[in-house]
Specification:
The protein has one helix at residues 2-36; strands spanning 44-58, 64-79, 84-99, 102-123, 126-142, 147-163, 172-180, 190-192, 198-200, 203-210. It is α+β, with helices and mostly antiparallel strands. The protein folds into two domains: 1-37; 39-210, Porin (Beta Barrel). The longest helix has 35 residues, at 2-36.
């Protein structure tokens, strides 16, 4: 009889405890859902890095063509989810080209660009980057007799694979290898031989990103 009375007393207490836990769980779920909607400044990342490229090709006339590229790339982006990032990147690049068929002519170029990128993280530590880009180029052509300066505009469509241990909210380094698939003969990432054949050059980039508005845990 005493056991029955004790159970009758405990039942309302247990019901109250579980009801409170359920209420708090429900409120926590609602809070998390509310926090996940809309713009979140803590998911904004910034940074950038350097670009380095070197290529050597042999055309149909068995002539060797070489290109060297060095640049700086600031960027800003946003984590849409654990899989997708979007952002904007600009760059300034210096690159030179020379050919064995004409050792008296060299090209020195300064390139300014602005592009938008999408990064896809299908698995941990690896990502795919797609970035259309607009380029403005100042080219200096140097020969034994004279120097000419040209101003050129071009478009690029960069696609590549990157590596970096990305954790949203934490700073990280990354490396990236890309090719320009746009086939624009004036692109700073392509080489055009004497026959007019456009060859994409591998572009290697390394960078660092951080979260300027990261929420610090108390």
């Amino acid at each position: 009889m005493k056991r029955i009375v004790a159970l009758l007393i405990l039942l309302p207490v247990c019901k109250t405890v579980f009801s409170q836990e359920s209420f708090h769980d429900h409120k926590s779920a609602e809070t998390a859902s509310a926090e996940s909607k809309g713009f979140d400044a803590s998911k904004v990342f910034a940074g950038g890095g350097v670009s380095l490229g070197y290529g050597s090709t042999v055309d149909g006339n068995n002539e060797t063509n070489t290109t060297f590229n060095l640049g700086a790339i600031p960027e800003i982006g946003y984590n849409l989810s654990n899989v997708f990032d979007i952002g904007l990147a600009s760059s300034i690049n210096y690159y030179t080209t020379s050919s064995s068929y004409n050792v008296y002519t060299k090209y020195h170029n300064i390139n300014y660009s602005l592009g938008a990128f999408v990064r896809i993280h299908p698995i941990d530590d690896f990502f795919i980057q797609i970035m259309p880009e607009k380029d403005w180029i100042k080219q200096k052509q140097i020969t034994s007799n004279y120097t000419s300066i040209y101003k050129i505009q071009s478009s690029s469509f960069m696609v590549g694979i990157g590596y970096g241990h990305r954790v949203i909210g934490e700073s990280y380094f990354y490396s990236l290898v890309m090719l320009d698939l746009g086939k624009d003969k004036y692109s700073p990432y392509n080489y055009v031989d004497a026959n007019g054949t456009v060859s994409p050059l591998p572009v290697v980039r390394g960078g660092f990103n951080f979260y300027p508005f990261r929420k610090h845990q108390k």
